[in-house]
Amino acid sequence: MITPGELGFGLNRVHVLVTGAAGGIGLEIVQEFLKHGAYVTAQYHTSPGSLPELQKGIDDLELFKADVTDEHAVKKLFSRGGEFFEQEVQVLIVNHGIFPEQDVNLVDMDLEQWKRTLDVNLTGTRPFDTCPPV
């Protein structure tokens, strides 16, 4: 039987960095890249969610807690992942994003919620422009 890693998608030993990897779409992205033989650096902000359980027995997954709105933390994310897998990031998946836990329309959002949402979802992509090209 052929495993997904043998299907020839060209991802075997490719270093992938996924932001917002702790759950939902991000976690699914991580799992798919691992199935295809990639090395994955998985970024999360607060809680790693199911990532530690997924990491058990897998050498190809590195977890990294980082605030994507902090340029220094993003640079450290790239360098630590590169050191761990002994190769630079080759594929970048910018998947992070937040929406307030309270079900609130954008027009009803208080200013602090609005600023935090913009900081993470919009401004939080900017530090990735200053990191090594992938």
Automatic annotation (TrEMBL):
Keywords on record: Oxidoreductase
Gene Ontology terms, MF aspect: oxidoreductase activity, acting on NAD(P)H, oxygen as acceptor; oxidoreductase activity, acting on the CH-OH group of donors, NAD or NADP as acceptor
Span of the signal peptide: none
UniProt-listed Pfam families: adh_short
Residue ranges of the TM segments: none
Family annotation (Gene3D superfamilies): NAD(P)-binding Rossmann-like Domain (3.40.50.720)
Similarity remark: Belongs to the short-chain dehydrogenases/reductases (SDR) family.
Name listed for the protein in its UniProt record: Uncharacterized protein
Lineage: Eukaryota, Fungi, Dikarya, Basidiomycota, Agaricomycotina
